[in-house]
Backbone:
């Protein structure tokens, strides 16, 4: 079945209907569906509606909670710890960002550490929510149930890829940095393995710590290998430092992590919102950063056909196009969604 | 002249005497000397007392101010912007960390953006000041007068290496992550060039954007090349993201940066202190992070003779050894220091 081109609104309504049919409360279903569709529109297809069948499977086995509120473990007004109890991660993050933004607007900065969220999806989409309103937002994310990345010089996986993101306002659209501590990610490795191909570069280590292009070493050999840290064997102490930074912020501050040995797919998060108006001001911030963006965009490129871009440029272009022309998912994703819709009695858009 | 082995106290007093003789106020001279000697003890010799002759030269030409206070551009209680007016960076940072720590102890977190500091030295030494007292500290640093790193896909240097650091308490000593957005640094490139050798890997780009091991391209060819971003040509979008993150925090928030076209050696900083007691608590933080550290240290190493370490382990060992046995600088540094001492009429230790 070929995927049709649908409007963003239609896809959002479809996604929300799927989650609602699976028992999710309406506000959560709407939030998750909207953010997944925005993720697709911004070009991050692995983390868009392709996630919905996985989320629905988690709901079916009781691993993603669909009703209720996070538990507020601690709240001092500027700092907080929430226990997400495996509620939908995108909804939790949208709510936490909203709280942090209102506090940052009053005090200049605010931070929330979250433990036991379900999957929080694409970080760039989340920091954009704050950057669109003039804030600078940072998100650090790890999953203490996952082990895919070894410490520098080691052979046994300890960390997840540990993504982190920063978003800040730009002249036409926000700058959205969304990177991680390892060279590649779990989903890229799975995709590469599923496609039956090798990575172009040795981005993994086998169980002996030998660099390899073979994605099978991550989950299909015993003993298992690992994904290489940013910097690989040459300067992997840098990726190691990033991995530790993300774990300290997301697990240390939330007081939950690998020590607890969780086994459910989930996440720990540290999120922070800063308001430039409590520093040198939004205008001064914009003047500096727009000048920097211009110096990057006008930089003489290595390849004439590949101008230098800012992270966030592609996302903005994709979003504008999807808003104008609608969005077409890939056929494989569409087939999976159609099967879910059939099972749940939800009409296709 | 061979460098003698001196006690840490003797080296600190010697350093302070040099700066005082050059006109620096006593509190500043003491702070800068103490932090430089600690840097040496922690093994970061390029940023230790080897910096003193450079600082003294800056003082002599009026480029480092030696008296006075930073200007408080803005202060909301939790967020602040300071103009350092090119006062000694280490002293400014020690003071800013002290202010941020006392505020974080009261509110859970505090941030200060600094513009126009002089060189702030080794970030690991600075975050250690806060981590030793149970805080988590983050420092992001750029120099808008420097251009050594090009945006990903570009050929013209725009950024400095943009170091950043995070320090947090550990069971025996703090974990100290101190890394940057580029593969190598300006000082490593200068050292390599001065030694007349090449890098082992192509960590630079020539002016056309071709990877090269030749350190000369950074400052000794026209047009100049650049230092490669973390990730190089394979995944340099990650280093690019880090570079932008550091610029946004240190220049955007302080409202001063490349737009102003400064030409003096200096720095912009964003520093933040978090108190784990305002999140899940210091005990919970320690339990999680010490467990993680143990899993790293006990990780089966790739090479049996190279056990996995935590960043900060070497620094702690070096500091303990220097405290017990004293410290011997390298002969070249000692000769430069002795020449400064002779000129300023300061006795050698």
Residues:
């Amino acid at each position: 079945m070929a995927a049709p081109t649908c409007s963003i609104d239609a896809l959002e309504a479809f996604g929300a209907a799927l989650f609602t049919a699976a028992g999710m409360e309406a506000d959560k279903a709407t939030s998750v569906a909207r953010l997944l569709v925005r993720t697709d529109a911004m070009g991050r297809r692995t983390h868009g509606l392709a996630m919905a069948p996985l989320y629905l499977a988690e709901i079916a086995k009781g691993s993603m909670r669909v009703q209720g509120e996070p538990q507020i473990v601690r709240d001092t007004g500027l700092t907080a710890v929430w226990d997400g109890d495996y509620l939908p991660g995108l909804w939790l993050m949208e709510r936490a960002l909203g709280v942090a933004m209102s506090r940052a607007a009053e005090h200049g900065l605010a931070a929330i550490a979250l433990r036991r969220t379900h999957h929080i999806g694409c970080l760039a989409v989340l920091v954009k929510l704050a950057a669109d309103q003039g804030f600078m937002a940072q998100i650090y994310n790890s999953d203490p149930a996952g082990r895919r990345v070894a410490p520098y010089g080691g052979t046994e996986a300890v960390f997840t890829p540990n993504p982190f993101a920063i978003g800040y306002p730009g002249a036409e659209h926000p700058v959205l940095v969304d990177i991680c501590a390892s060279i590649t990610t779990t989903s890229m490795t799975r995709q590469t393995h599923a496609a039956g191909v090798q990575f172009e570069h040795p981005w993994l280590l086998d169980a002996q710590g030998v660099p390899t292009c073979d994605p099978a070493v991550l989950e299909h050999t015993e003993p298992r290998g690992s994904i290489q840290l940013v910097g690989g064997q040459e300067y992997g102490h840098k990726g190691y430092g990033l991995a530790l930074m993300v774990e300290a912020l997301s697990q240390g501050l939330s007081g939950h992590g690998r020590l607890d040995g969780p086994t459910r797919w989930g996440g720990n998060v540290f999120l922070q919102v800063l308001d430039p108006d409590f520093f040198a001001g939004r205008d001064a911030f914009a003047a500096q950063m727009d000048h920097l963006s211009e110096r990057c965009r006008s930089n003489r490129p290595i390849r004439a056909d590949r101008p230098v871009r800012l992270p966030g440029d592609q996302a903005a272009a994709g979003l504008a196009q999807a808003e104008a022309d609608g969005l077409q998912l890939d056929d494989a994703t569409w087939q999976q969604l159609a099967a879910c819709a059939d099972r749940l009695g939800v009409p296709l858009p």
Chain B has twelve helices and twelve strands. The radius of gyration of chain B is 20 Å. The longest strand of chain B covers residues 109-117. Chain B touches chain A through 82 residues (CB under 8 Å).
